[in-house]
Amino acid sequence: MINVLFVCLGNICRSPLAEAIFNHQIKEKKLLDRFSSDSAGTSNYHIGSDPDSRSIVSAVAHGIPMIHKGRQFHHLDGKKFHYILAMDKNNSRDIIHELGMKHEGLFLMRDFDEQFKGADVPDPYYGNADGFENVHQILYRSIENFINFLEEKDRENAAG
Question: Model-level pTM?
């Protein structure tokens, strides 16, 4: 089982939406037995909180269920998760700081976005519903490419 963690600042907007989209896509591809996911925040702002209602609305509008309670990233996550996907460069730096090193499976979420490779996923928190829809679209295509990356790595490992 490959464990994937999505990380943003507060764990109520981007990362739980990424987790929900990932779970939806792996379910559609019948890969639930091969991958698991979670999400976390680098801050302690929203521990135990539900996702932002606008993230939930965006997910539901696309037929994606979203069930999550906010939690903070912990250095032990570095041992539990094979891949850690940070929503932006600041969160990536915070992850490295918490772990005391760069995790070999640490990527920016948009490292898998062909349109704006390596860019930050914008934080929609202070915006409106359009910002959440934009983030949904970014995450959807990035996660689709990330899953393709995982499947390709799996094929390479099986071959050799």
Answer: 0.96
